[in-house]
Design a protein that fits this description.
The complex is a heterodimer of chains A (415) and B (497).
Chain A lengths: L10 H10 L3 H9 L6 H4 L1 E6 L5 E5 L4 H11 L3 E8 L16 E3 L2 E6 L20 H18 L5 E5 L4 E6 L2 H5 L2 H10 L26 H21 L6 H8 L5 H12 L6 H14 L5 H18 L5 H5 L5 E2 L14 E2 L15 H11 L17 H28 L1
Antiparallel strand pairs in A: 1-2, 1-3, 3-4, 3-8, 5-7, 6-7, 6-9
Helix pairs in contact in A: 2-4, 2-15, 5-8, 8-12
Chain B lengths: L2 H13 L19 H23 L4 H15 L11 H19 L3 H25 L1 H9 L6 E2 L2 H6 L1 H7 L5 H8 L12 E5 L4 H5 L4 E3 L2 E5 L3 H27 L5 H9 L1 H4 L19 H8 L2 H13 L4 H14 L3 H11 L5 H15 L14 H6 L12 H4 L2 H12 L9 H9 L3 H12 L20 H29 L1
Antiparallel strand pairs in B: 1-2, 2-4, 3-4
Helix pairs in contact in B: 2-3, 2-4, 2-5, 4-12, 5-6, 5-11, 17-18, 22-23
The chains are: A alpha+beta (415), B mainly alpha (497).
The site of zinc ion has 6 residues of chain A, from loops.
Chain lengths: 415, 497
């Protein structure tokens, strides 16, 4: 196949991708938690976006073969995964409305680079580069640890969204069962940066009246964010270098003497680096009298600044409702052609969106690897650079399945 | 508090059938109940719940809901603290019984169940907060009487997470509160205690970051343990109602109960009316006073009937019935009523009038037929019974008029008393949500603002309109009070002069 034929918006390319590469079986096991189909799969909504931009909701399947067959027939540009309902979504029309309710769903999170547009200096809009990925990496570190340590969930799958963001799917049994009220609680608990363009101070989470402190969970996040704040905000993005950048910073410091001194100094030294400016601020705090409320207030403001620039900015609405649909892992982003691959949170800093395999690249690899054309298998992805990512999902699912097995055995014993 | 008195109270708890004022209503009442008792208990409780619903419909803040509900409880369902010498078991039995009768009435549809659970949970919350203020020991005894499936955090673990726990309990007035209200003797109850529960049981506290979270467990300080209690109350009741709903068909065989339960379940639509009959009405009124009274004191339903009667010199059967009984209770004697209706039906000959209408009027005064003393119709009856046909004028304008007609009618009726088109959107949106009596109450407040009635005050103490005669009689009371006040002022002027 010639390169120009591998445009991800071409139906032939997508059909070849679904037939030869998309890991339907792995996705099935991940959604189903067991080898034989359960309600978690059969009552699960799949929504297709067709080439014609028609949106086809309430599809459901009894097996992964059926899932693959239908996907190849419809040949969508992408598809989304919804909740598990009380009945099969494809039978929706024949069921009385009250009897068709979402009951289970992975707990999901969505972080998108656009929410960082007011801070990042390297790119804007739809663009993303290795440098601004640093914001996403910091967000992943904080969220991953909060959800594991504070909420006690273990089965977290991070997935690159194909363009400029990342999704998180939590598959623990308890997480699957959460009500909308509980999902809203968790989303709001994890929302720290709030307020639009006209709100300067976007972090207002302290509790107590005299010397207010950060809640324990946010104190824990702050400790994870000090390093990225130095590397990313001060060094890489150099957010306070330009006038509007440091003016924004000064608006967040509740001490006129301090801001006046800094303003004089920075006005006379155009282009002073963010690192130097942050050090100027720290030096002024050091000189303030210890244990005074003024000093405590500026120190608190500095902590809040770190949070405002680096704490995860969630699209909270995605998390709040069980029936929110989210693009399936391993779909192809129609504009970039990149595959939505799982991301290992341990090495999220090393992730480079530009190095993510694209549909075109994968199909070329496949053509090169297969000597006899026409032999097509479910596991053709093994012959391409998609392999490590499918393996990552399978390992994740194996742990989940093992837990389900143990849970079942325990239930059997108790009888 | 000294120990001997405490011991005495402990003994008292033991001999009471209902040891606590707070109740989770786990077991249905088993003793024999008369049908009258059954109905009275349920109606009185329903008054309180309906008022709670109105509070939600009016978006009242919780502290207002609280004070209104407390007043209603004092009036309709008084329950004394354990230190009182009254017959506590009798009071608590009424509470218990009323709750269970209403479960039967409200388990029948998902919508009714949802509303009932919401109102009952609010009632429980109001009482729980009050108990915490006036009888914290009783409340603690109640809490100790139930297994709430929470694990008390031991001192070792508390020490391990000391700083995190501390930051979750900063800045609330409750720290102070516990110091004041919990005597040192009750060390088991004070603020430094933490209970460990799955975080999913206290989503409200998690959302506000008011608990420390570790591995999916929330460390709930004792001041916030009420969240767990309320959630448990709500969940228990939801489950119980579903079970009752499944068991109900068997109960439907009891023909005396079914109409009663149906009637009760309508209580949320328009509140529970107080009984309005001739004995509770004020002074007698004369036929030629009606016109002025209508302009100054009538709710929209009666004003509408009056205006139509004047225009058409006629009203159809249900209109005459609704208006006639209202006027009777307002204080129009049979003689004056005869005069009023005769004059109003001016297009008819004496012969026609006597033949077609006289009997009906006398009948409604209990002078014909089975000679019953018919009460005037309540909002609930007007809203739900004898739905008006296309040529009828009776019913409730808030429910039975189209929005544009309602707007025109309200402005023409009440502009003179201060209602303006700026008030209309709020009223229409209340109507749209199905809270007709709340809309009527709001109109009452607006049109009596010049008598000092404030928004949210209703017919007094935040109470909503549940009966047209209540509307009219409160309106007349306010006028009388204003007249009296003016007299006193005049007197002062004279004295000063
Ligand atoms: Zn960039």
């Amino acid at each position: 196949m010639a390169v120009e034929e591998l445009d991800p918006s071409s139906p032939e390319v997508m059909l070849a991708f679904y037939r030869r590469l998309y890991p339907f079986k792995s996705i099935f096991k991940w959604l189903n938690h067991e080898h034989t189909p359960t309600r978690l799969f059969t009552n699960r909504e799949i929504a297709y976006t067709l080439q014609s931009d028609v949106y086809l909701r309430y599809n459901s399947f009894t097996t992964f073969e059926e899932f693959k067959k239908q996907t190849c027939t419809l040949n969508p540009t992408r598809f989304e995964i919804g909740p598990v309902y009380t009945a099969r979504p494809r039978d929706k029309k024949t069921i009385r409305p009250g009897a068709f309710q979402p009951i289970q769903r992975e707990l999901v999170f969505d972080i998108d680079m656009t929410d960082y547009d007011s801070i990042r200096t390297c790119c804007s809009g739809a663009d993303i580069c290795k440098r601004c990925w640093g914001f996403i990496a910091a967000a992943v570190r904080v969220l991953d640890s909060a959800i594991r340590d504070q909420f006690g969930y273990k089965y977290l799958l991070w997935v690159y969204s194909g363009r400029r963001g990342i999704h998180l799917w939590v598959s623990d049994r308890e997480a699957m069962e959460l009500t909308d009220e509980q999902r809203r609680a968790i989303a709001n608990y994890l929302t720290v940066v709030q307020g639009g363009k006209d709100m300067h101070k976007k972090v207002n989470v302290r509790i107590g009246t005299k010397d207010p402190v950060l809640p324990a969970s946010i104190q824990a996040a702050l400790e994870l964010l000090i390093e990225p704040f130095g590397d990313l905000i001060l060094e890489d993005q150099d957010c306070f270098k330009k006038d509007e950048g440091w003016e924004d910073l000064l608006k967040l410091i509740p001490n006129e003497q301090v801001t006046a001194k800094l303003r004089t100094k920075w006005n006379s030294d155009e282009g002073r680096s963010s690192e130097a400016k942050w050090k100027d601020l720290r030096d002024l705090v050091k000189d303030m009298l210890k244990k005074t409320p003024e000093r405590a207030a500026v120190k608190a403001a500095m902590e809040d600044i770190i949070l405002q620039y680096t704490y995860p900015r969630l699209d909270a609405e995605v998390t709040k409702h069980r029936n929110h649909l989210l693009k399936a892992p391993f779909c192809v982003h129609p504009k970039t052609g990149r595959v939505c691959i799982p991301v290992d949170p341990e090495i999220v800093d090393e992730f480079d969106p530009k190095l993510v395999p694209t549909v075109g690249q994968l199909l070329r690899e496949l053509d090169a690897a297969i000597s006899e054309p026409g032999s097509e298998e479910h596991t053709d992805w093994e012959k391409t650079s998609l392999k490590p990512y499918v393996d990552m999902l399978d390992r994740h699912t194996a742990g989940l399945m093992n837990e389900v097995r143990i849970g079942k055995r325990a239930a059997d014993m108790s009888w | 508090m000294n120990t001997s008195r405490q011991l005495a109270e402990v003994e008292r708890h033991d001999i009471l059938k209902y040891p606590h004022r707070l109740n989770f209503y786990d077991k249905p009442p088993l003793d024999d109940v008369t049908i009258e008792e059954f109905e009275v208990c349920a109606l009185n409780r329903l008054r309180i719940l309906a008022e709670i619903e109105s509070c939600y419909a009016r978006n009242r803040p919780f502290d207002e809901l609280c004070s209104i509900t407390r007043k209603q409880c004092e009036k309709y369902l008084p329950m004394d603290a354990s230190t009182s010498k009254t017959d506590l078991d009798a009071q608590r039995r009424v509470d218990h019984l009323g709750h269970f009768v209403l479960r039967l009435a409200f388990c029948r549809s998902e919508e009714l169940r949802r509303r009932f659970v919401k109102a009952e949970t609010a009632l429980f919350r109001v009482r729980y907060d009050l108990e915490g203020q006036v009888a914290p020991l009783d409340r603690r005894a109640f809490l100790n009487s139930r297994a709430f499936a929470w694990v008390q955090v031991d001192s070792q673990e508390k020490a391990m997470y000391a700083s995190q726990l501390q930051s979750s309990s900063l800045g609330t007035k409750d720290e102070e509160y516990y110091k004041v209200f919990c005597p040192p003797l009750t060390t088991f109850s004070v603020a430094q205690q933490y209970a460990q529960v799955k975080w999913t049981r206290v989503p409200d506290l998690v959302e506000k970051r008011r608990v420390f979270l570790k591995g999916g467990w929330a460390y709930v300080p004792s001041r916030d343990q009420s969240s767990i209690v309320f959630q448990e109350f709500q969940m228990n009741l939801e489950k119980a109602l579903e079970i009752t709903a499944k068991a109900l068909p068997r109960l439907d065989e009891d023909t005396r109960l079914v109409p009663l339960l149906n009637n009760l379940s309508q209580g949320f639509l328009a509140g529970v009316p107080s009984e309005w009959n001739a004995t509770t009405a004020g002074d007698e009124i004369k036929a030629d006073m009606v016109d002025e009274l209508a302009r100054k004191h009538f709710p929209a339903c009666m004003r509408n009937l009056h205006d139509n009667l004047k225009r058409d010199h006629h009203l159809k059967h249900f209109g005459r019935l609704q208006y006639g009984l209202f006027l009777k209770v307002l204080g129009l004697s049979i003689e004056e009523a005869m005069l009023f209706w005769r004059r109003s039906f001016s297009g008819y000959t004496d012969d026609q009038f006597n033949k077609n209408y006289k009997y009906n009027i006398r009948h409604s005064y209990g002078l014909e037929g089975k000679r019953a003393n018919y009460p005037a119709k309540s909002c609930q009856q007007i809203l739900t019974m004898d739905q008006p046909g296309s040529t009828d004028n009776h019913g409730c304008p808030y429910r039975h008029f189209s929005p544009d007609n309602l707007q025109t009618a309200l402005l023409s009726m009440y502009s003179a008393q201060g209602l303006t088109s700026a008030d209309i959107p709020e009223i229409l949106s209340t109507v749209k949500a199905g809270h007709y009596h709340v809309a009527c109450t709001r109109v009452f407040e607006i049109t009596h603002a010049n008598r000092g009635v404030k928004k949210g005050e209703g017919v007094g103490g935040g109470e909503s309109i549940t009966h047209p005669n209540q509307y009219a009689s409160r309106s007349r009371e306010l006028e009388k009070a204003a007249v009296e006040a003016a007299k006193v002022e005049d007197g002062d002027v004279v004295m000063a002069g």
